[in-house]
Each structure stands twice: as C-alpha cells, then as structure tokens.
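@channel sequence for tomorrow's demo:
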Amino acid sequence: MSAHTSQTELILIGKLILEGDMTCETGLHVGAGKGSLEIGGSDNPVVKDAFGRPYVPGSSLRGKIRSLLEQASGVAVPADMVYLSRRKGQEVRIHQSDRPDDEICLLFGRNPGRMERVQGDAVDTSLATPARLAVFDAPLDLASITPQMRENLDDELTEVKSENAIDRITSQANPRTLERVPAGARFHTRFVMDLLCEEDAPLFPRVLEGIRMLEDDALGGGGSRGSGRVSFSNLRLVWRGRKYYAAGAPEKEIGAGATVAAIQTAVADSAFSFLHEE
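structure tokens (generated this afternoon):
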C-alpha cells in the first residue's frame, strides 16, 4: 500500500504524460455494443468514430489495466469488491475500499457513499478520492493499414472473423461473426497521471506494471480465442511541473523511443528527482 493517509494534502505538483504506439499483434475486437443492420454485416461490430474509423476507447484501456492491477494486488476477491450493477446477466463488480492508502482507489478514483459488497458488509464512506490516471481514446494510425492489408480485408479497415459455437449434446453449430481491427494496425495511446502530492509518485510504476501485463493478456473481446494481443512501442514519458503551466517552463523528458521495460528502468533511475527540480 502507499504512504497516503487521511491527512495527506492534495495540490497539483505536475503531470506525467506517457505517449506511444499500441500495435495489434492479433485481430482486435472492442465492441460497439450493437449488431450491424447491414446485409452480410458482422454480428459484433467494432466501435468506430464519426468518420467510420475504428478506435480504442480510453475506458476500455483504463478498465483492462485496472482489472489486471486488481488481480496483481490480490484485491479481486469477493470481500474486496463492490457491485456497480446488479442487473441479471450484466453484473459489474470492481474493487473499492475505504482505506486512504489503497493504491487502486488512488489511481482510479473513489466516490463517497454506500456500495454493496459482493461478500460481507456494505462499504459506507465519506472519503472521496480524485482519480490520478486519465487514459484517452486511442485513434487509429491510418498509415498502419497498408494497401496490401486492404486487399485482404472484408471492409476498408477491418476484417470479419467467423466462429462456430458447438452444442455439446447435438453437435449443432451456431455460427457467429466478429469484426476485428487486423493484426498490424497501430493506435496512438496517451496516458496522463496527475501528481497531487509527492506520495503519488510511487503510483506511476503501478501504471507501467499494468501496461506491461496487458502485453501478455488480451484487450477487448475474444481474448481466450486469440483476439486482442497488443504490444507497446515508441513510448515517450515527460514530466510537466506546475511551472510548465504557470510560466511556460520546458517539460522534462524522462524516457523516449522505448518499450515499457525501458520506461520502467528510466523511471527507477530518475528516483523521482524531477519533482524537486526548478
């Protein structure tokens, strides 16, 4: 757990900004939540922007990283989770506690009020925690969809993967289709972490830990069936202190052109000394 207490004073010190590329190693399906009405269209389309281009919602990236960090922290258990929704078939459970040093709640925020635990007594707290981590929508780099790829795609920018679910009793096939962004597609990602006190600094390595775990997990739907493997590259991490915003001071580059592992090393080597530099 962190060094935060209920008396920790919060005032913006600065922002850590991590930008880079996320490449699809296998097809990626982040669903739009509704089926296509077009004849021959996919049963499960991907989410697209107003121009018809696939993108990865920041909420999808942020939620997956949160889930992985909850599992790694050992808090993805009934006694440490609450219900966001109890609608049958659409239950949503996340970790939340009333501990001021809870790293998950510090990173992703916490609202005051009463929430029902999955197991045990309800959480009833007046402690509000502003989220430190913001994850922005990741737009598609159109140049990553090459002319050769377009020749083999079902649509201009996406592919349709056909699958069959087999009834174990009758052996009857139930076909379904899944629209995916193809392997090789590249998205531009942006993560911004607010440091509201010096105690926040050790939280950033947890963000990097979650991003690195994601590379060996899956993003979006169909992960257990081969979809959603991604990798991160060309990362650049900068620090923008208060003087950057108040007086036009330059930002400080902490690491650039690197993998997640290299950024982790750069952060460790910095020992957060940038917090005290003028």
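heads up for whoever presents: Helices lie at 58-73, 103-108, 147-152, 204-214, 242-247, 260-270.
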